[in-house]
Design the sequence.
């Protein structure tokens, strides 16, 4: 049974930034603010296991959003990947509790992993997605051309451009392949005029929302109460309401419409009907 309400298509509930937090309180707050579903997204093998475990952990609770899992190795973690990692990811998918592969992709901004190594394991994870007919959650930074060519060559037609920061032209290329475009809290920022213009032009049947929590806290909460150790203003699933509100404003639609549209888009993409 799929919940109504906002679908947060990208969140990291297993993040170390939440270690000292009451997770049930975080999830209760989200539920009573109208969040119906959360996709708990991994970035390495450890968090992939945690994401699947959290599906079971919160399965019976009714006053929280429904939790789903995505498994995958983030491009900046590509150097940690090997054949055994791919086997373990495949086993997690075979549990039946995984609805997407991610977050995966290419990141040429950070220098954690060689681009060729990133490409190799990106392709291997795309093969898992194809084998099990699952959408992919793409993290792409300074690498849209290479990522597009790989996606096209591998004939991937289901997925999300996560936390999109590219141009309308880039979005259109991926839309033509069958992808969806997801916007996070950074679309609310005062200096995000270009990104806001892109959001206006994404078709309503291909737009999604996410928090990328604990990162990318939206306005007006951005910069408030930063963590003393990391400097990060920790983001929470409940804050997705600000992103929804901004998208509604940009598209000149009622907020309730955007809640419904983005939820239905996620349900369609993840084949949850």
Sequence:
């Amino acid at each position: 049974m799929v919940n109504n309400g906002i679908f947060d298509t990208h969140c990291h509930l297993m993040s170390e930034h939440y270690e000292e937090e009451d997770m049930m309180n975080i999830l209760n707050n989200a539920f009573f603010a109208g969040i119906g579903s959360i996709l708990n997204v991994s970035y390495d093998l450890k968090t992939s296991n945690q994401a699947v475990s959290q599906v079971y952990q919160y399965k019976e609770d009714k006053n929280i959003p429904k939790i789903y899992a995505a498994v995958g190795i983030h491009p900046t973690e590509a150097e940690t990947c090997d054949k055994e990692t791919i086997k373990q990811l495949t086993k997690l998918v075979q549990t039946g509790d995984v609805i997407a592969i991610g977050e995966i992709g290419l990141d040429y901004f950070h220098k954690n992993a060689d681009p060729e190594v990133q490409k190799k394991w990106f392709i291997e994870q795309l093969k898992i997605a194809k084998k099990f007919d699952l959408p992919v959650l793409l993290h792409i930074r300074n690498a849209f051309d290479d990522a597009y060519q790989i996606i096209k060559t591998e004939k991937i037609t289901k997925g999300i451009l996560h936390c999109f920061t590219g141009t309308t032209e880039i979005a259109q290329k991926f839309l033509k392949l069958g992808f969806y475009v997801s916007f996070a809290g950074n679309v609310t920022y005062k200096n995000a005029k270009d990104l806001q213009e892109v959001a206006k032009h994404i078709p309503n049947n291909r737009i999604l929302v996410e928090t990328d929590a604990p990162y990318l806290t939206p306005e007006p909460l951005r910069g408030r109460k930063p963590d003393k150790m990391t400097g990060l203003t920790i983001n929470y699933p409940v804050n997705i309401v600000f992103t929804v509100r901004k998208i509604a404003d940009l598209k000149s639609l009622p907020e309730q419409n955007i809640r419904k549209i983005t939820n239905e888009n996620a349900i369609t993409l993840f084949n949850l009907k």
Observations:
- The mean pLDDT is 96.
- The chain has nine helices and eight strands.
